[in-house]
Amino acid sequence: MFGLFGKKKEKDLEKPENSEFLKLVEKWDTFLNKMETRFNESLVNAKEALLENLEESDYDINPTMTAWQGIKSQLMAMGDKVDSTFDEKVLPQMLKYKEHYELLNEAAKATHLREKVILKKIMLFEIEIEGEVSQRFYNHAIQFLNKDFHCTQCSAKLEVRKDIFRAHYVTCDYCNTVNTFIPNDKISQIRWIVDNVAKYNCINEWKAMKNAEEEYQALRSWSEGEDMSQHKIKIKNWEDASRTYWTKYFTLRSEYLPEYAETIAHDTDVKMKWFYEQRKRDLNY
Amino acid sequence: MEKHGVTFRDYACASANLANGMPLEQVCKVLGIEEPVWAEVQEYMTNNMSKLEPGGEEIMFFSTVFTNPKQGKFANVEGAAGGVEDVLAKYPKWSDYIKMRAYGQVADEVGIEIDFEKEFGISTTQFAQLGSHWSAYYKEKVIDVEAYDDYAYHYEGGPAITPEQAERERVMQLQTELTEKWLTHYKEKFKNLSANISDDIEF
Q1: 3-class SS at B83?
Q2: What's the predicted TM-score (pTM) here?
Q3: Which residues 52-81 of B have a C-beta within 8 angstroms of A?
């Protein structure tokens, strides 16, 4: 029986592909190419539109970030469309010529475009666009802190700190009056966007962390008794890359928000906790 | 946890009232502090909240105070946010809440901001109060009721279900119907804004 199956399979391999099926594959490839091209073009257009939006709104960052969420939904929907097109249109037509198991490669093309291109690029683009929008907002808003502020009692120039973006007391060096400095809304908002700027400025470390994670995840599952030296090497690389990224991120953030300088090590450890839980689950150490 | 004499509970109540539209000036007056002190308190609490015990008393209080901000020092303050009963008096139906939620979802998808105050005459805190109220309803009617073999009951003449299970089925179905109804409504309303960027590409 097994011999017969073997022969049948060999025969199938030798058999030339049905021309109608080949046309369908070509049509499917064309569709995927068009979707990928449109996706890439949309990223370029999104960046231009969002940066313009920020400037036109006089640096009101909220509508720009909301608009980005809308664009992101549409970009994500392109991944869903690739999947649903395969399931609802491509697969039923291809099944006229092939068995389901013979079409796994065609299904994998959809998965690749959705996961390895669309979702991966959106993750990276999100850091870039939120970082760039936030950096431009920061450059605009920080100017308000560079203005001169004067003592309410004697009108002497006050030294307002450039790294506190909230209301605080400022004592006049000349007459010792305690003034209350209340920042405008834009200065207050700086506090909430510096995370994006910090993340953007360590994007290379983020990429290295993601690559190390992918290299580890690409190894097949380890089972009891097997040699796990490769897993240990790859997960160590991932651990080192993660620690490098989080340390740099929290260090950069503390340059804008000095109150976080003391907690860089603690905050990094908190972020690494998830990694160690996963390592324990996967490799039991 | 305390900063400048403001306890974490005071801070939680103050945050809930601020979210409900109480002016910062009034919040500071209730707490008996000036704005720069409040700013330090807020920064301290935000930075240290992760150190509180997960699921502990203080965290649990923070997660529920937004549904009833009229507590502690804010209990008898005029203008303090009321409890869920106030907003339920205005929007008593589950459909009202599902409508608002669908609006929020579609707005996110098309990238527009919604102003709950302008659209529905309620604050975002009141919207959150409605959310908590109806989540509790769903938990009681659906999650906490023992599931049954739906297919066997409907198509194979399976064993009879209890009145609670029948109610569970009704509530689940109602949720599906209402969500579909309001999502369709808002998708239609914003169809000009939601043209998909790949609508013209077809297999």
Answers
A1: coil
A2: 0.80
A3: none
